[in-house]
Design goal:
- It contains four helices and 13 strands.
- The chain is α+β, with helices and mostly antiparallel strands and 279 residues long.
- Strands 1, 2, 3, 4, 5, 6, 7, 8, 9, 10, 11, 12 and 13 form a 13-stranded antiparallel sheet that branches.
- Helix 2 runs antiparallel to helix 4.
- The longest helix is centred in the middle third of the chain and has 28 residues, at 119-146.
- It is globular and about 60 Å long.
Length: 279
């Protein structure tokens, strides 16, 4: 057993670093390109899966004192063109029978609509799905160009050896899609499993304010942060397991807020409708 363990560590130490010398910019870019390709596959596959999402929201007053806490649990189900959320719990308590029936009825309406679509309407929804997939791929392609990257060394995360990569905005890069302008306002760290080239954890900090609707709808203030974690759920596929969004800003230009939102993803299952429209 000891001999086998030593041999495994020797092979990892000797063979793998020869593949990527991440202190060299070209090698680091090649490594990150593989990571990004894996992320594309993960996200596109995730679109075919149902799962449970527990969303916990904590609101604070201007002094940092907790004002309110609430949580909701959803069953998230893939439709042809989007993900549908069916509410199943509020604040950890299962819905009443009438509330559960109402949620099930709403889901049935959506599923039946998609089953009984005309060929023309079905084609339109499938085009929306293709566009959603295209935007997901484009987003991950943009990340490689939108940031500078620097290898920071190694660490252990949950007994897993990981590489740490620092990233910050590449101010000289012009985005190909203005919908991804948020990428220009972020910096942080990425923890990557080097054996499978998969992201384990991301810590993102907002280095500039991020505005939606010119700040009239919402403004997320500089200093807000987001942590995202994922792990292997299915063979060779990694899905999100947790996020934590700690942010402050303004709603509708004048209403200030400070809150923390945690999300937990569980019970992933490959979702197949009886008809072929969801294939």
């Amino acid at each position: 057993m000891i001999t086998k363990t030593v041999l495994t560590l020797f092979l990892i130490t000797i063979v793998f670093p020869g593949k990527y010398d991440l202190t060299q910019p070209i090698s680091l870019l090649r490594f990150l390109e593989k990571v990004v390709e894996n992320q594309k596959r993960n996200r596109l596959t995730e679109m075919k899966y149902s799962y449970k999402l527990i969303r916990q929201e904590t609101k604070f007053d201007s002094k940092g004192t907790i004002k309110n806490r609430e949580s909701v649990t959803y069953e998230v189900i893939p439709l042809i063109d989007r993900m549908y959320r069916k509410l199943i719990k509020k604040n950890g308590t299962t819905l009443s029978e009438s509330e559960a029936r109402d949620q099930e009825k709403k889901l049935s309406v959506q599923l039946n609509k998609q089953k009984n679509l005309s060929s023309e309407a079905l084609s339109k929804l499938k085009l929306k799905r293709i566009d959603r997939q295209r935007r997901e791929i484009q987003f991950w392609d943009e990340t490689l160009n939108s940031f500078h990257f620097l290898y920071m060394g190694e660490d252990i995360q949950d007994r897993r050896r990981v590489f740490i990569i620092k990233f910050w905005p590449n101010k000289g890069y012009q985005l190909t899609n203005k919908n991804f302008v948020i990428l220009k306002k972020l910096q942080g760290l990425i923890w990557i499993d080097p054996i499978v080239s998969q992201i384990v954890r991301v810590k993102v900090d907002f280095v500039e304010d991020f505005k939606i609707g010119g700040g009239l709808l919402i403004k997320v203030s500089k200093g807000s942060s987001l942590v995202f974690e994922q792990e292997q759920i299915k063979s060779k596929i990694w899905f999100p397991t947790h996020f934590e969004f700690d942010f402050k800003g303004r709603f509708f230009f004048f209403k200030r807020f400070k809150m923390k939102v945690n999300g937990y993803f569980t019970d992933y299952a490959n979702y197949r409708e009886s008809d072929s429209s969801n294939d």
